[in-house]
Automatic annotation (TrEMBL):
Keyword Membrane among UniProt keywords: no
Name of the protein in question: S-protein homolog
GO cellular component: a single term: extracellular region
Secreted among keywords: yes
Keywords for the protein's UniProt record, in alphabetical order: Secreted, Self-incompatibility, Signal
GO biological process terms on file: rejection of self pollen
């Protein structure tokens, strides 16, 4: 009997949608927001997960930011990584994974936002619990002769 209740609860939870974020009510909604602080130069960004390609974005003033929304999977295994290029530099890292899900979670109905900012010295993550930008990665030089995209 107890198992039946759990089954019904999960079944309803997966089928009833939270109107604020479009996610089933038992799953958390997230937003990844990426912004360039290098307004006068092109920064190219390609973000994807195993199943989803967010596409290529060329960030240049006045189009310096973009974001996308998604619902966490029931196992919490959602992972998005991005590849960034700027001049002869690049970097690649997870912008969202199981640990970022905890960092970005602030119990916001419309979605918990992971903010990343691209600067000339590297990549910063906004830590919403302490209201601070934390540098996570630096740019890496692309080895001479390596194809860019
Ligand atoms: C920046 O990107 C735009 C759009 O893709 C392109 O037209 C332009 O030539 C690029 N500028 C530089 C300096 O690469
Ligand atoms: C998740 O992503 C963050 C930020 O890129 C990284 O520091 C961390 O090591 C990653 N965690 C896991 C479990 O891969």
């Amino acid at each position: 009997m107890k198992n039946l209740f759990i089954f019904v609860f999960v079944f309803l939870g997966l089928n009833v949608v939270n109107p604020c974020n479009g996610c089933p009510i038992i799953l958390r909604g997230y937003v990844v927001h990426i912004k360039s602080d290098i307004p006068n130069d092109n920064v190219t960004v390609h973000c994807q997960s195993k199943d989803d390609d967010v596409g290529y974005h060329v960030l240049h003033s006045p189009n310096l930011e973009f974001q996308w929304k998604f619902c966490e999977t029931i196992t919490g295994s959602t992972l998005f990584f991005c590849h960034f290029w700027w001049q002869n530099k690049e970097q690649i890292f997870d912008v969202f994974n199981i640990s970022m899900a905890q960092w970005c979670f602030v119990d916001h109905l419309e979605g918990n936002t992971c903010h990343w900012e691209i600067k000339d010295d590297g990549f910063y993550f906004y830590e919403p619990h302490n209201y601070v930008w934390l540098k996570q990665y630096s740019w890496k030089q692309i080895p001479e002769g390596k194809l860019i995209f």
